[in-house]
Amino acid sequence: MSSTTWRSGVDGDPEQACPIAPVVDLVFSRWTTPILWALHEYGRQRFVELERRLATITPKVLTQRLRQLERDGLVRRTYHAEVPPRVEYEITDLGSSLAPLFAHLAQWSAGNLDRVERARQDYDARQQPTRGR
Fold this sequence. Notes:
Blueprint: H1 3-6, H2 14-17, H3 21-27, H4 32-42, E1 45-46, H5 47-53, H6 59-71, E2 75-80, E3 86-91, H7 93-96, H8 99-127
Antiparallel strand pairs: 1-3, 2-3
């Protein structure tokens, strides 16, 4: 990747210096990627199904994230006027278009997270005070 491809923003303006910052804020906020992954992987689901798949998320947070994802156009909410009412969520075409990005990140993770962990351990070892001083 060339430096012009990587850094196409305006000099001196940190918000414009990184053109991917809005995407990172949109897609990588807490719970967004697990929700999108679950909808992409398993298809249309009811709230309780998503809640079961994401066992540690609270109902309040799941509701908030789903609303935001719907607002952003990444998730579609369908209300069925039945008794009892039924609501389903599914990933949109826009949300599905993120799949190659997630696949690339998963590939990077598989090949590099062990290196990150080693770097952390090396760093932490250097930060430990030397005994006997």
